[in-house]
Amino acid sequence: MNFLPEWLDVAPWRERLRASGPEDVEAALAAERPGLRELAVLLSPAAAPYTERLAQQAQALTRRHFGRTIALYAPLYLSNHCASGCAYCGFASDRSQPRRKLSPDEVEAELAALKHMGLEEILLLTGERTPEADVGYVCDCVRLAAAQFALVNVEVFPMSVDEYRQLAEAGATGLTLYQETYDAERYAEVHRWGPKKDFLNRLETPARALEAGLRLAGLGVLLGLADPVTDALRLYRHAVELEKRFWRTGISLAFPRLRPEAGGYHADFAVDDAFLARLICALRLCLPEAHLTLSTREAPRFRDGMAGVGISRMSVASRTTVGGYDQAPTDEAGGFDTTMELSASRLTASQFEVNDRRGVEEFCAALRARSLEPVFKNWDAVYRGGGT
User: Fold this and answer.
1) Cα atoms in the Cβ-side hemisphere of radius 13 Å centred on 238
2) Domain CATH number, residue 297
3) 388 occurs within a structural domain
4) β-bridge mates for residue 152, sequence order
5) What are the C-alpha distances in Å from 153 to residues 20, 131, 256?
6) Does residue 63 belong to any structural domain of this protein?
7) Does residue 306 lie in a domain region?
8) Is residue 113 part of a domain?
């Protein structure tokens, strides 16, 4: 692929990873300002025995910059119409499932249900661009959400600078857009058709959004699609490049793992809990001020263990169907009705299977049991104003 940015070349640091020994890990842990070199060392096999020390340092940095707080948000899927063929996604255009989008009245009902949970940050999602869910539709939904929520982020299709300006004017505060994998060849394999197949366009999208005035950019990789270490190094470099160019913006990083979905896609590059924990802690050392996000794709035990240890932001009570909050069946704690088995029809209707099914009340109790304070309003909303 032509014209890829130079920062995607991480070959020298991959060599550093393979050659690392205990002395390199000690030096990385002692570094005053860890960077790409140290990140590579901390993700090397030589660093595995140092996980506890790494976690202690990550926790100390997290507390220094975020206190004992965990910022909470919930995703709201507006539409599952999609023009792309992502091999790993339950919303891909070749999946056999009913397609729908929320009407304005349905959006209002879903927002009211989320507001009732006490949330103040929301993430609005769609599939790739379609006539059913275009820029105008997303802007209308953002306006409805911004009237009720302090922070309204969007995870939708890539847009132009002018289109992102429209979103900012409608009340959007930021975007989340994962590259999925920074391996261009692997990217081409798993994005079989549709607008999302354009690797470079997607890579450049966060910069366009920040240029347009959105103040928060969420980056991420979908672990399991490609070599996780290479993707992690490139994810870090992407964050650093955006921080240099848009120094007044906020950056968050996420590293979701593949989950079961209607197409039955299986991870070719499995990532276990131990490596993911080390990745989170290593990124915290290298990006001490960035929000690191962990979603309900992960199991409750892992989420509880990582909260405050690198992780500073988490989703809660997530539904991955279109809508799903208003009049949804819940248990006494406000979470999913766990007495109901996950049927094939329910999985078919979702983008992927959620792992942590706890409601807001139960999840917040788990955080408080670890002396952490759930935060429903993130004062990063001040980023609504100002320029680059």
Assistant:
1) 30
2) 3.20.20.70
3) no
4) 122
5) 39, 21, 18
6) no
7) yes
8) yes
Backbone angles phi, psi at 206, to 5 degrees: -55, -35
Give the global pTM.
0.91
- Distance of alpha carbon 329 from alpha carbon 359, whole angstroms: 11
How many other C-beta atoms lie within 10 A of the C-beta of residue 368? Answer: 12
What total of structural domains would you count in the chain?
1
* Angstrom distance (rounded) from CA 222 to CA 230: 12
Q: For the chain, what is the radius of gyration of the CA atoms?
A: 20
Dump pLDDT digits (tens) for 11-69. Answer: 888 877 788 999 999 999 999 999 999 999 999 999 999 999 999 999 999 999 999 99
| 270-320: pLDDT as tens digits | 999 999 999 999 999 999 999 999 999 999 999 999 999 999 999 999 998
With a CB cutoff of 8 Å and minimum separation 6, the contacts of 228 are 221, 269, 271, 275, 279
**Tokens, residue 171:** 């009340």
Provide the residue range defining the domain that includes 370.
68-381
How far lies 327's CA from each of 67, 142, 201, 319, in Å?
A: 35, 22, 38, 12
**Residue 87 exposed, middle or buried by CB count within 10 Å (0-12, 13-18, 19+):** middle
Distance of CA 131 to the CA centre of its chain: 26
Backbone angles phi, psi at 86, to 5 degrees: -70, 125
Tokens of 139: 């802007």
